[in-house]
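In practice, a research group might receive sequence data for several interacting partners and want a quick structural hypothesis before committing to experiments. The following worked case mirrors that situation: the sequences arrive first, and a predicted assembly follows.
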Amino acid sequence: MRISRINEPHVFITMGDPSGIGPEIIMKSMASPSLEGLAIFVVIGDGGTMEAAAKKFWGGKISITSLREQREKCSFLPDVLNVVDPGGEIGEILPGNPTDEGAQKALDSLSAAVELVQKSSGRYPSALVTAPVSKERIASRSPGFIGHTEYFQEAFSSELVTMVMVGRNLTVVPVTRHIPIKDVAGVLTEGLIEKTLLQVIENRVIISGKEEVKIGVCALNPHGGEGGKIGTEEEDVIAPAVRAAKNIYTNIEGPMSADVMFYKAVKGGFDIVLAMYHDQGLAPFKMVDFDNGVNMTLGLNVVRTSPDHGTAFDIAGKGIASSESMEAAIKLAVRAVSQDT
Amino acid sequence: MRISRINEPHVFITMGDPSGIGPEIIMKSMASPSLEGLAIFVVIGDGGTMEAAAKKFWGGKISITSLREQREKCSFLPDVLNVVDPGGEIGEILPGNPTDEGAQKALDSLSAAVELVQKSSGRYPSALVTAPVSKERIASRSPGFIGHTEYFQEAFSSELVTMVMVGRNLTVVPVTRHIPIKDVAGVLTEGLIEKTLLQVIENRVIISGKEEVKIGVCALNPHGGEGGKIGTEEEDVIAPAVRAAKNIYTNIEGPMSADVMFYKAVKGGFDIVLAMYHDQGLAPFKMVDFDNGVNMTLGLNVVRTSPDHGTAFDIAGKGIASSESMEAAIKLAVRAVSQDT
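A structural hypothesis for the assembly, expressed as tokens:
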């Protein structure tokens, strides 16, 4: 058994809800030759569930340790799949039948991941991949839980996190996310747009794999506001933010009418598109990249990626879940973490 | 020369800005074998411009009459392309160089079209196709001109007009159109959504070519409001409108998160999608159907269609403009008018 190299990248993967497709798509990804040897992989979740999934969907060797143990040494093996169990009873887990204990273990896996990422900081480069959880179930145990992004933002004390949807055809950054449409114009400030742009510029190689990218910025209003006739936010808020960001990086265009922007972007005219609100960016994105889309979070202590789908309880355990999006998420995490070295 | 049949459908086509690609794409469409004999075609615009365009891009026979003449008889020939000149001097027209006189003639062609449609009402079924105008240029002659849709709405004294974007991959109806994002939630009422749905249901065969269609209704907010956590308009406004419309026609689904809706629709899951606002529908639509999209207006005295692009002054006169969208617009008009008979 070889010893891990100095600075060998580590990818921490949280199990997600054990009754969902998480364990299955993690193991199917491990079975993919395209991921072999790219990094040291550490899955954080229930040992028994991961062992069963490994047997069923992979066949490779796993090494189960406890969080208590890893808390001190934070040391993982290069030739096996490392599993870190955060501890606690989980009871019987049946695919497709989520339980409170399962949701609790999924949540405990998130906090364990935060701990391991923090402890390993400075020892080796690391990235984080999350399998899907049931927000509703976790919220019933831990009120206030909204989702992975918000959880990690708090856990890592991050000021601004940016969500990036990376797909084969489009890469989209919604500047505002889960807020009602009536509040969008009010939340959208010059500062928020500029900071988001700067975070994207800083991470452009991680996002796109290349140094030179063309960034497009959507307008807020129809037809880009038509010179102020259909809204003034383009001139008052978005254009100044774009001008400010151009002092750092010049290859930015916009604000541009969203219906023109996505037509051009999908033909390759833009590498990264900033959308002003959720549906403006996500409706075009999911239309063409639903099956391979990866959700990336910037602004945390580590780059975090996740497949762009949910727990899919309806097909869990049937062996038919596609690991395409999970594999893409892991590859993107590897790219991010290799970028760091 | 044959005499037109009783009830033979008529398609009135307005020239658009004479310095734009309108005359070219009209004549290229006339040259398309797929349109031959489908209807009696009447182009309303400058006689000289249309004659020159016919020579350059078609080669067929045209018959030029004046609006004054047609005002009385409203009678057109089946074997030639009828051109009705609304009168007035136009001066020299150079492709790509819009003039005030050209814009005035484009506007006069619209009012002439309204007159002919009204005069011919009851004599034969008719539809209207509009080539692109320069809104800015017309507005500088006739302040208050916003666009074709609003012009015809006023000219025909229509209470509610609905814009339908018909493409090969998607058909989208934006319930609200050219208003700032901050005003969308306020403008969106249960009554407006219901009336729009009813207009779509009534015209579903014209829109889609079939009696049985599946209609999808988008939510307003991200994730469809997530049960009220991200906005309440889904429950308060959209769902009641959908329920009311289902009393007339049952095959309607929604409100559904827009990013799920368009993913499903583009795979054939929905024939017609109602979007709550401009970009929600138009960004996905133009991304996949920009080149072939047709803009259809319901709620006027006639069905009106138009290609989903502008005057394209930059390529006018070069002979490179694609008539794909114009031909699709004419075909859709023919379908609408044949439906009437």
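Before designing any experiment, note the following. Chain B has 13 helices and twelve strands. The first strand of chain B starts at residue 10 and ends at 14.
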